[in-house]
Amino acid sequence: PEKKYAVAINSYRGSGGGGHITEGAGIEHALLENRIRWVSEKDLRSHIATYVQRYRSLDPRPGDNWQIIPQDWVHRAAKRDKELLFPRRDN
Questions:
Q1: Are 31 and 38 in contact (CB under 8 A)?
Q2: Alpha carbon distance 78, 7 (integer Å)
Q3: Is-contact 58 48, C-beta < 8 A?
Q4: 24: closest CA among 72, 82, 88, 85?
Q5: pTM for the full model?
Q6: Is the per-residue pLDDT at 69 higher than 80?
Q7: Is residue 21 part of a domain?
């Protein structure tokens, strides 16, 4: 790899849920625990609530500064998920 990044993710993804880390990044499930740098005792919802209480606002504008790679996985998954979520109904 050209660069290494510390990435904040939820416990579902961090434990391999969804396959993004294990299948997508090719990291063995057994090695995930050794990569954890910090764990919060609170859930993400609690951290967001604390932030809003402190700063009285939240600006949820989307950032176009990331992407899922490899892109062909994105297209296949989007097609599969669209068919699952919005099945065709023949008249």
A1: no
A2: 23
A3: yes
A4: 72
A5: 0.49
A6: no
A7: yes
